[in-house]
Design goal:
single chain, alpha+beta, HIT family, subunit A, 3 helices, 5 strands, binds guanosine-5'-monophosphate, binds zinc ion
Amino acid sequence: MKSDNCIFCKIANGEIPSSTVYEDNDFRAILDLSPAAKGHTLILPKAHFDDVTNLDETLGAKVVPLAARIGRAMKSGLGCAGFNLVQNNGVAAGQTVMHFHLHVIPRYEGGPEIVTWTPGETTAEDREETAKKIAAALI
Ligand code: 5GP
Ligand code: ZN
């Protein structure tokens, strides 16, 4: 279902023009307006889902193979050496547009770090306790 005041619904459905890399019945893949690297692409479902927690499972099963296809095309078409798949869920995770999207970000030899974090430390006890909390909450 499309949401009336969602910019990615409008872009995905062609009501607002975009630099489209790929389109089918389910998705439109567009270039990001403020790219992390040349060719940074966003895969948008045409239907509205706030984030991955309510994404339709059939579309979810299609989106990673599509990202792989686009990533391969970035390597052969743009000459990048690799690519990152990034997908933010919730404001705390850096999501700024509340319509599910998967970032496909080309990585070039010698290019800047894009997805990075400082590795933390844990104990075996802490990992055990944390794993149990997640496992117990799975539905
Ligand atoms: P998020 O932070 O929600 O994971 O990513 C949103 C992305 O959408 C950002 O990288 C931002 O540059 C991009 N973006 C926001 N508005 C527009 C727009 O109107 N058109 C395009 N092509 N990209 C957009
Ligand atoms: Zn939307």
